[in-house]
Specification:
The structure is a single chain. This protein has helices at 13-23, 33-39, 98-107, 122-127, 137-140; strands at residues 6-8, 49-54, 57-67, 75-76, 81-89, 113-115, 131-132, 146-148, 154-155. It is an alpha+beta fold and 157 residues long. The protein has a single domain, classed as Gcn5-related N-acetyltransferase (GNAT) (Aminopeptidase). Strand 5, helix 3 and strand 6 form a beta-alpha-beta unit. GO terms for molecular function: acyltransferase activity, transferring groups other than amino-acyl groups. Its EC number is 2.3.1.-.
Length: 157
């Protein structure tokens, strides 16, 4: 298998059609369709959506949002960080390294990353070097965030 190439997805109607293939597998909690519909500006280059194509088919996708350091409640020293959200690989393409490629792409931004794992995905995130954040009720609202920190960054005490 050749190396998976991560691309920023354009916010357009072609991408909307590709995203509809993902919800067909019943992953409503992962659906980015609403995000995409709300942000359609033809071929917007500032899309928060990234994907991996297998041939002409979108096989994996994620949202990646940058959060300003003034809102940082996770890392020390306070800094900009990324929220990696809605990572999904279609069932027929799992086990090919596409999810790993998306996470590595995010890590290469060299900013701390926060994510909220879905049921049964904890092992994947641990393999990718993520750890449980110390739970704070007011901050985490019942979520169980996982974080990844580049060298020189620590979790807030």
């Amino acid at each position: 298998m050749s190396e998976a190439k991560v691309e920023r997805l354009l916010i357009n109607y072609k991408t909307l059609e590709e995203f509809e293939r993902f919800t067909a597998y019943g992953n409503q909690e992962l659906s980015m369709l609403e995000d995409l519909r709300n942000n359609i500006v033809e071929n917007d280059s500032e899309s928060p959506f990234y994907g991996v194509y297998y041939g002409n088919a979108l096989a994996a996708r994620m949202s990646l949002y940058k959060v300003d350091k003034k809102y940082d409640q996770y890392f020390q020293p306070s800094q900009d960080y990324l929220i990696l959200w809605k990572l999904e690989v279609l069932p027929n393409y799992r086990g090919r390294g596409f999810g790993k490629a998306l996470v590595e792409f995010a890590k290469n931004c060299n900013l701390p990353i926060k994510t909220n794992p879905l049921i049964n995905s904890q092992g994947f995130w641990e393999k990718m070097g993520f750890q449980k954040a110390k739970y704070e009720m007011e901050r985490d609202f019942g979520e169980n965030p996982l974080i990844w920190m580049p060298e020189g960054v620590k979790e807030k005490e």
